Each structure stands twice: as C-alpha cells, then as structure tokens.
Amino acid sequence: MREQLTPKQVARALEVSESSVKRWCDRGLIPTQYTAGGHRRIALSDLLVRVRDGRYRLVHPEALGLPPTSGRSLGGRQRAGQRIGEALLEGAEQRCRQIVFDLVLADQPLAAICDEVLAEALCEIGHRWEQGEAEVYQERRACEIVLRILHELRTMIPAPPEDAPEALGGTMAGDRYVLGTTMAELVLREAGWKAISLGDNLPASTLAAALQTHRPSLFWLSCSHIPDETAFLQAYQSLYQSHGQRAAFVVGGNALTESLRGQMQYASYCDKMQHLASFANSLQRMSNRISGEKHDESQNPTLEN
Amino acid sequence: MREQLTPKQVARALEVSESSVKRWCDRGLIPTQYTAGGHRRIALSDLLVRVRDGRYRLVHPEALGLPPTSGRSLGGRQRAGQRIGEALLEGAEQRCRQIVFDLVLADQPLAAICDEVLAEALCEIGHRWEQGEAEVYQERRACEIVLRILHELRTMIPAPPEDAPEALGGTMAGDRYVLGTTMAELVLREAGWKAISLGDNLPASTLAAALQTHRPSLFWLSCSHIPDETAFLQAYQSLYQSHGQRAAFVVGGNALTESLRGQMQYASYCDKMQHLASFANSLQRMSNRISGEKHDESQNPTLEN
DNA sequence: GTCGACTCGGGTAATTCGGGTC
DNA sequence: AATGTCCGAATTACCCGAGTCG
Predict the structure, then answer these.
(1) Which residue of A141, A202, A207 is in closest CB contact with B198?
(2) Which domains can be identified in chain B, with CATH numbers?
(3) CA atoms of B269 and B261, how far apart (whole Å)
C-alpha cells in the first residue's frame, strides 16, 4: 500500500478535481510534502486523519488501495456489531473489512470499535458455539479475520512521535488468546504511544526481563484464560513488586474475576478498550504537565519522557 | 551502519523513482560522490541533512540503516535471513518489514522468502533460546512481527480470480502455532488459489464440517506440535477416510516425524513452503489440462473448477 | 578472471506544475 | 468565495543496451 499519494490519486479518491486538492494543499488544509522538483506528495495517514475529522469524504477508497465503502448508512455501532457477526460466521472477510473501515472513516474511535463491534460480535459467536449453533472452525476463522483486520488498521495509524511514551504488554503463560493484547496495542498506538505487544504465552520471568530492558511507562496484561490461579497470582505479584513502581500496570480480560482482582495490585483495571484508552490519555496528560513544568523551570527545550 | 548509499536505496527510502534521485544528484540538489567507474554514491549524512530541512520526506527510514538491501539472489536470501534474525531479536519491526519487502520487490517468490528467510531466522532464534542466549519474549515478539508482516504481504497479493480453485487448512487440536498455516495460505494465494486458513487448535470434527461445507480441492494441515500422537493419528485417519478422495491432503510441519508419516495417508508431504507451492502448481496445471480437454471436446468456453 | 546483479545514461510517455479563465 | 477545466513548461516514471560492482 502506497504511503505517499499524488494530488491526482487524492482527487480520484475524494471525487473532486485535481485543482481543488492542489488549492487545499496550498492553503494548508492538507499537510503536504514536496519532491525536489516541486511536486506535491500527501501522506496517506495525513489524509485519513482529515477524512475521519469529517472534513473530506472518501468516496472511492479503493483508489488508495483501501477496501471499498459499503455505501449504506452506518446505522450505529450496535447494528455494525450484528452485521459483522454474521459476516464473521460466514467467513466473508472482505465484508468484515468494509464494515470496520466504514466505522473508522466515520471517525469512530478504535477503542469503541474494538469494544462494541468486534468484541461484541466475537462474544456472540462464542455464545452460538456454546449452544451448538456454530462450528468451532467458524469461531477460529472469525478470530483470524479479526486479527488480520487489526493488523491492517495498525498500518493506517500515523507513526508515533520519537518522544512518545513507551508501553509494553502481552498475555501470561498458558493464555493463548492474542486478540486482547493486539487490540490493546492498537488502541495505545492510536492514543500516541509507542506500544508493543510482545505476544502470548509469556512466562513471568521473561516479562520481567522485557520490563528490565525496555523500562516502559505503561505495562498491560491481557488475561483471557488462567489455567492455574495460584501460580498466576504468584507470578503476577513478583512482577508487580519488582516493576510496579516504575511502570503503570494495567490489567484486563475476562479471566480476571472479582476475587482474583481482590488479590492483585495494579494502576488500573480495564474491562474494555475504551477504559484503557482513557487511562492512557490521562496518564500521558499528567506526564506532559510534569515535563512541561520542568521545562518552564529550566527553560530547557529537551524533552524527557 | 553503511555510510554510502546507492541511488536505488535512496529511491526506496524516499518512495520515488530511481531516475528522480539520479536527476537530483546531477542537478546538485544532493551532494554526490562517484566511484571510479562513475557510479553515484550518496553519503547518509548528506541525505539526512536534507531530510531534516524538510526538503525530502523519509518514508522508509529503515532502509538507510542497512547494508545494500535488495536481492542479491541466493546470497541475498541467506544474508537476509541473518539480518532479519538480528532485527527480529531486537524487535526492530520496521527493519524486518523493509528486508522482506525488498526481497518481494526483487521478485523473490514468497515461498522462498518464507523458507529461507523467515523460517530460517525463527529457527535460529529458537536455537538461541535453547542455549539461553535469547529471552522467551524475544521469540514471541519475533513471531508477532512475522505474523504482522505475513498479513501485510497478504494484502499485497492480487485477489484470486472468481474461478480459482479453493483450498482450506489450519492446525489441529492442541497445536497453537499459527505461522505455518498462515504462510501456507499466503503461498497458495500467491499461486492463484482461493486459500483460507481456518486458524489453529481445530478439532477434527470441525475440520470435517468445514470440508463438508466448502468442498475445497486442496486441504492442508500444519503440524508444529502434537500433544497426543495416537489421538492425532486417529483423528487424522477419520478425516482422510471421509474426505481424502475429494480433496488433496497436504501435510507438513516439524512435528511430523518419519514414523508418524508412515502411519498417515496423504497426497503430499511438504517439508517447506516451496514444496507446497510446486505441488499446488502441478495440481492446478493438471486440472487446467483436464478442463482444457473438456473444452476442446465441447467447444464451450465456460470454465469449471 | 568469471558471473550475476546492479547502475549508467539517454530517450520516451505520462503526470504534475502554476497560472489564467470560466 | 469556491470549484472545474484548459494550457505550455517542467518534472517524474518507465524502459533498455552497455558498462561497473562485489
């Protein structure tokens, strides 16, 4: 997928004339780079930001290598959840992609899409499977499709700035459900973090090593399956004791029952991705304010994060 | 880090054509040195100065931190395997992506990239882990990165034609290693199949249901971990008996020992993705010839696949 | 010295520039 | 005030045989 677009491509995608695009660039309405010869180049992510703002309408996304819009009015996230649930069951990957991208282009926050559309639909499929109305392979295929879409969304988020705070996360040993941690990474990246999901099935010792090496300011754990609760608690506690001061621990996932949470220490428990997003935002605001004060005192423009 | 860059490397990093870079050099927009034979060499520092000026936009900065990238054929793939191994260990996702995409742009077959670069590098990381030279999280993170790259490559393959033959596959119950089946899907799609990976951890009963519903002409099983060999054999045999006539069964993966294979029936055992690719191609050629003969007889241009 | 892959230079087709006008 | 269309000049992308690099 091309990351740099010519005015002509943008014009086709927005269904306007080329001159209009050029004028908008010249007026600063669209961030523009120039080649050495003076030709305009527009970054795809910059364009998508404006589209999501509602400033421009993307009539022909396929001109940019993006999935085509369905054209139908997006009757809200709830209906999208139902429609994508059906599409996932059928394995209609392209239709799923359309639904999600429609929502993204309509400026729905990724966290809300994760919670109210994707998680919702997957949950529904899980229920059907429990009642014998769906095959296991349909559920697995649905997870595959969602994972692919999450990865595609990730490439569409503008790269985090150099000085962005770092975040690290994953799932613990015995937990092989990657969607949660993948969503967390995506949502944090949208919020402007340098977030890295380490993957699934990670023993506490290696998580400690990763924390030691990277020293992130946020650390998330997605818990969808806990085979041995006492072992889990023990591993978690040692992890928290050695690194809980330096990094903000965020935990979430269906496997964290109330009684389990009662025996854990953490900076935040996030039931949903939207909780994670708002927690991350408040954390970042706070650290910005602190580093801002530092700058005021020292008159030093160097950033420290 | 290589200090001198070729026009090709610069072109890829800036996402412009090679001739543009050459013209800019000739016009003095980029300071240029020359080899004795008249080949242009651009100093990394000279380029970075212009990038900071905002005169050029560095779309793919990773390309510059590297020795000459693109496919020096076999030597290229082997070296790429080593280089991507290091990048995977460090978690340098962008660098990994650049290495793989360079190979793709140099027209290396995806199957060869999977076998000789990605699998090679992952294997090496596995060895290091066994010897205590690598952390578990580095290995998991490497798998995550490779999976993302595979998904991105998938979006770059043109959609298969309507009448393409179908293929289905996945991993069996207890096997949670998705890279093998994801690579298989990718390679088959490159070969023009409508290939769908159903995911991992699939009980035989649901695989049977999927085969029953979709009736593919090829069915692959990736086997990287077999917790219970007798259960596996039993499940596989019942699957093969009911659907082995209709679909070509292809099996592969490290977990398939010689003794296990001796007790299995299949159309092909594929040690590597390149085997899978050539098997799929020969299968398709054969079916094309058959349907071609039919057309000769009936003078009917309708395809049947 | 051989060899494959890369680069050179030049030519051509397609695209984009800026400006003027509707 | 904003958009779409037209224009010659300039820029960029693609192509190819000969020469260079490692």
Answers:
(1) A141
(2) 4-64 (1.10.1660), 73-154 (1.10.1240.10), 166-291 (3.40.50.280)
(3) 8
